[in-house]
Amino acid sequence: METILYATDFSDNAEKALIAAINLAKASDAQLTLLHVFDLPVGWDYPRLQDTPGMEDDLKQKLENLFNRHAKGKAKELNVSFQVVENTSIAYGIISVINELQADLVVVGSRGESKAKEIIVGSTTKALVREAPCPVYAVPAQATAAAPEKVLYATDFYEADLAAIQKLVDFLKPFSPDITVVHVSLPGEARDETKMEWFKGLVQEQVSYDKMTFQVLLADDIYERLTSYISQYKFDLLVMLEKGPVGALERLFHKDLVTKMEFKTSQPVLSFNEKYLQLLERDWYDVE
Fold first, then answer.
1. What CA–CA distance (Å, rounded) separates 150 from 78?
2. Measured between alpha carbons, how far is 180 from 160 in angstroms, rounded to an integer?
3. How do the domains of the chain map onto residue ranges?
4. How many CB atoms lie within 10 A of CB 277?
5. Among candidates 196, 195, 161, which has minimal Cα distance to 277?
6. Which positions ≥6 away from 119 have C-beta within 8 Å?
7. C-alpha span between 32 and 21 (Å, rounded)
8. d(CA 25, CA 126)
9. What contacts 24+ positions apart, CB below 8 Å, involve 168-173?
10. What is the Cα–Cα distance from 42 to 177, expressed in whole angstroms?
11. In terms of Cα–Cα distance, which of 79, 76, 70, 84 is closest to 16?
12. Residue 123 pLDDT > 80, yes or no?
């Protein structure tokens, strides 16, 4: 991992995500860029609404102050930069910088300060999860700042899961976490144990990592079972594949499911979208 982008709306909820981004950048020896996207017509609280350069300077200084407050003794060990972008769409402002930097990962907080814009959660997060040309690491304010030690990857046995698991191992190898690959089986899916053995064989054939286990869970409700499993075994990172226009992670943000998915407020979620993985696979073949 060479480049990590951290996007913030300066809310308290987004600050825990910065600590995670700093830890990831330090462990991976990656370039870290702090980004704020603003929309001039919204106004904010700036006295010089027509002075865009002056506003950008103020916001860059605010980013630098934010970084120095949280980096502490790690500041000199990191290669860090600061960027401010004006865009009427927060999500697509972030995506434009991902493309510009060719970022390997974007880190965001999972709740934002602005209800009108839903800067980090809601429509912006959904757009990033669906469209970002890199994985999205969403960190809630209640998450611990510690490096990931126990990781849960939820699978439905998609082919793209293989590429996602490989990238997950690449990202987290500096932390050497235990990774559990889990599938929640609904009533009537009796062959899922057999599918898991098949999938386990594929993963072990293609991914070199010896701290990975595989588990099938039985449940009537996928989300309630995942919630209890995460709580019981104290996983500190949930990883999922976002497949198609309405994938697993998008459903986590559905209004009717927010209260059920209690883990969303305490564990970070790392999402890989299928579009990104397909582009990545194509690039691998082009290199070969």
1. 25
2. 17
3. 3-139, 150-287
4. 23
5. 161
6. 9, 11, 90, 112, 113
7. 8
8. 24
9. 168/239, 168/270, 168/272, 169/207, 169/208, 169/209, 170/1, 171/1, 171/24, 171/28, 171/104, 171/105, 171/135, 171/270, 172/148, 173/209
10. 42
11. 70
12. no
Using one digit for the tens of pLDDT, what is the confidence trace for 221-264? 887 888 889 989 999 899 988 876 555 554 444 443 333 443 45
Q: How far apart are CA 255 and CA 227, in angstroms?
A: 17
Place of tokens 């611990």: 144
Give the tokens for residue 31: 């370039």
pLDDT tens across 5-21, in order? 999 988 877 888 999 99
Q: What is the pTM for the complete model shown?
A: 0.84
Residue 150: exposure state from Cβ atoms within 10 A (0-12, 13-18, ≥19)? middle
Token representation of residue 57: 């300077």
CA distance 222 to 125: 22
Is it true that 3-139 and 150-287 share their CATH fold? yes
Write the class of the CATH domain 150-287. alpha beta
**Buried/exposed 82-114: b ≥16 CB within 10 Å, e otherwise:** bbbbebeebbbbbbebbeebebbbbbbbbbbeb
Could you say which architecture CATH assigns to the domain 3-139?
3-Layer(aba) Sandwich (3.40)
- Pull the structure tokens for residue 214: 């595989």
